[in-house]
Amino acid sequence: LAASRAALMRSAAHLASAEMNESGSLNGTGVPLARIQTSDGNSSLELSSQLPVFAINPWDVVLCISGTIIACENAIVVAIIFYTPTLRTPMFVLIGSLATADLLAGVGLILNFVFQYVIQSETISLITVGFLVASFTASVSSLLAITVDRYLSLYNALTYYSEKTVLCIHMMLIVTWGVSLCLGLLPVLGWNCLDDYSSCSIVKPLTKSNLTLLSASFFLVFIIMLHLYIKICKIVCRHAHQIALQQHFLTASHYVATKKGVSTLAIIIGTFGASWLPFAIYCVVGDLDYPSVYTYATLLPATYNSMINPIIYAYRNQEIQRAMWVLFCGCFQSKVSFRSRSPSDV
After folding, report:
1. How many domains does the chain have?
2. Is the Cβ–Cβ distance between 310 and 102 less than 8 Å?
């Protein structure tokens, strides 16, 4: 009897083993497991009944979050300038152009994340990349236009508010957005590396030559801005010296104001350079075979420039602060003092 029982148990074990071999190994909960082969020849087990893991690059998540913050910040600026009739001077028109470009750049970063992980299409990828190129180009070009405007407000202070200045500002805006749109359309119209992988740059699907053109354009804009800000510093210091000669001495208030103005200019150009220069340089020296982490690490600070722009150019402005107070509080309290600022105020 004992021998029969043992034989029956061995038969049951043999049948169970055969079933496991057919359906795959089982864990303690009865979930089928798939056997995978490792590099050293040994096998290991992996759950096969689980849903496929949806891998998301953390860098893309950070870029998407940055895009959301950028879009929210600049949307407020655009709304304030659009709904405030008093903010129609050339300076605020240029600030509105900058905020619009940064708003579109933020939206582009969000769309890039959505289309990359939800709707995967070469056509949509080209359109998204072109949209981002146009938006960031318009942002950098608007910064250049603001720099030119500040220089003109100091160099031609007596004729700054003439119709000639307004015409000049409108022409700068047309050139800014026209060039940005053309550069954004280049990858969509065929200047891409979809058909020739060897010509791809560190930012696919842009070609190396396309990215080199964009980098060269940035270096040109940066040099012009640096030159103009140096001239602005000289004008500010010369004005302070003239005031000192008229009053026979330089008062503490004028000295502090001059020092603050020069420091602000240094912060503006320093922030712009620190944000964009690493990415622009890497676009020239980088190669497709380099780890993508280098691309993300240099691109992320460049996007932060669009996050800092509304703080430097909009939220520090007294007129925009007053408009924000009216917009969010519904009224204007006279206890809060606001001083009207001119474009030459830095």
Report:
1. 1
2. yes
